[in-house]
Amino acid sequence: MKINIKPSFERIYKKLLHVEKTQIDEKIYELFNYYNRDMLFADLRMRKLSGKDNYFEIDTASNRRILIRKQKDIVELIAYGNHDEIKRFLKQV
After folding, report:
1. The domain containing residue 67 runs over which residues?
2. Between 36 and 28, whose confidence is greater?
3. CA-to-CA distance for 84 and 52, rounded, in angstroms?
4. Minimum mean pLDDT among 11-15, 17-21, 29-33: which range?
5. Structural domain tally of the chain?
6. What is the pLDDT of residues 43-54, one digit of tens each?
């Protein structure tokens, strides 16, 4: 499994505080382990988005989400934000 970081995610990530970056990094590590070792972490709260094929969101602390898209052996990190920001981003896609 490969993880591809989209420029939209990278722009948001660079502006975050160290605490939020650490939370995101932990979730990405858990996601990587989930797909490479089939290890489900209780803390990895991932759900499929209705109406969008292959799009998922992962909850992080403080009511923020990571938007990902899974395509075969690639997981793309697309965006990070609260519910409304992710919803707005998906309307553009």
Report:
1. 2-92
2. 28
3. 16
4. 29-33
5. 1
6. 678 888 888 888
Q: What is the CATH number of the domain that holds 6?
A: 3.30.2310.20
- Cα torsion 44, 47, 64, 35: sign: positive
Q: What pLDDT does 72 receive?
A: 85
For residue 37, how many other CB atoms are within 10 A of its CB? 9
Dist CA 4 CA 25 (whole Å): 14
pTM for this entry: 0.87
**Is beta strand 2-5 parallel, antiparallel or unpaired with respect to 74-81?**
parallel
Residue located via tokens 């505080």: 17
28-33: long-range contacts, CB 8 A cutoff, minimum separation 24: 28/3, 28/66, 28/77, 31/3, 31/58, 31/68, 31/75, 32/1, 32/3
> In the structure encoding, which two tokens stand for residue 71, read together?
């395509």
